[in-house]
Amino acid sequence: CRASNSTGVSVKKYNRDGFFIDKNGKLRSFNHKKLSRKRCGSLRGKGWKYGSGFVDGIFPVLSPTAQQILRFVQREVDSNTIWDAFDSLPPTHATWDDLINVSVQLRLNKKWDPIVLMSCVSILLIEAYGQKSLHKKAEFTYLELLDSRCIPTEDTYALLLKAYCMSGLLEKAEAVFREMRKYGLPPSAVVYNSYIDGLLKGGNPQKAVEIFQRMKRDCCQPSTETYTLMINLYGKASKSFMALKLFNEMRSHKCKPNICTYTALVNAFAREGLCEEAEEIFEQLQGAGIEPDVYAYNALMEAYRLISRMHMGCEPDRASYNIMVDAYGRAGLHEGKCSYSLVELSVKHYPA
């Protein structure tokens, strides 16, 4: 094919068809005129440079320089040495193309399954060590994860926070919190929940209240789990009025309570012998379409037992006992010790 330039001299035009290796490793050819511009295709004059081949599912053929860079990066273990070598390269478009192609090739050659498995195992180990208050082992596992160049997620930070809190290491827990912010990872409800849960299990309810208030100041919306944890906190502190206040707050914020939330509130009233309030919350649980479980029934029965023991003149009536006997029967616990005691108690108060 020939064409004339501006001086009228005939110039031979060469076919610019190129070659590439597809995802199956086969050598294929392409025509630059048919290469989609919408997919960022470009030839740039050489067969190993054709734009976003990685996005298009085409594996790039590395230039000789890129092949040398790839071998060097795969062989070298010191990251500082690699960066120093990169700094010595000429700052040209060709160099950037080679570095990008090498990065793509490294990503393609990466064995991701073992890395994902290692990350999952590390997170499980941190959680297990935290449950046993083995904070040093949890910390060592976290540092190993960093040495493996794995980027911590919010779940990793949440479990490490919880491990420190359960061991009473509040300063280290705050350090983890600051580290998250330093790396641009704002604490989410998952992280705050782990923080509060760890503080409660570590015997620091006052600090848990402070973290809950900080959570709201940071405009992080508390979740159902958050409210359940705090309702439990106030229930154990015999502050059922605060537990009810939080319960109403969560509903006003369109945060739907679950069976654990209702059970925690029933427990809060039961601990103070507020039988009528406990029954009211239990009825709300059923009205919400939630099937009560054995823990919910136990919480309600605790209210009845406490009132009977305190002799406050507010004994449960026959209907109350019938509800509980029927509940345990439907739950398949008619032969259980709790159900037997309840029937015995009802016979004592209301003989046939």
Automatic annotation (TrEMBL):
<dbReference type="Pfam" id="PF13812">
    <property type="entry name" value="PPR_3"/>
</dbReference>
<dbReference type="Pfam" id="PF01535">
    <property type="entry name" value="PPR"/>
</dbReference>
<feature type="repeat" description="PPR">
    <location>
        <begin position="223"/>
        <end position="257"/>
    </location>
</feature>
<dbReference type="InterPro" id="IPR002885">
    <property type="entry name" value="PPR_rpt"/>
</dbReference>
<comment type="similarity">
    <text>Belongs to the PPR family. P subfamily.</text>
</comment>
<keyword id="KW-0677">Repeat</keyword>
<dbReference type="GO" id="GO:0003729">
    <property type="term" value="F:mRNA binding"/>
</dbReference>
<feature type="repeat" description="PPR">
    <location>
        <begin position="258"/>
        <end position="292"/>
    </location>
</feature>
<feature type="repeat" description="PPR">
    <location>
        <begin position="188"/>
        <end position="222"/>
    </location>
</feature>
<dbReference type="InterPro" id="IPR011990">
    <property type="entry name" value="TPR-like_helical_dom_sf"/>
</dbReference>
<dbReference type="Pfam" id="PF13041">
    <property type="entry name" value="PPR_2"/>
</dbReference>
<feature type="repeat" description="PPR">
    <location>
        <begin position="153"/>
        <end position="187"/>
    </location>
</feature>
<protein>
    <recommendedName>
        <fullName>Pentacotripeptide-repeat region of PRORP domain-containing protein</fullName>
    </recommendedName>
</protein>
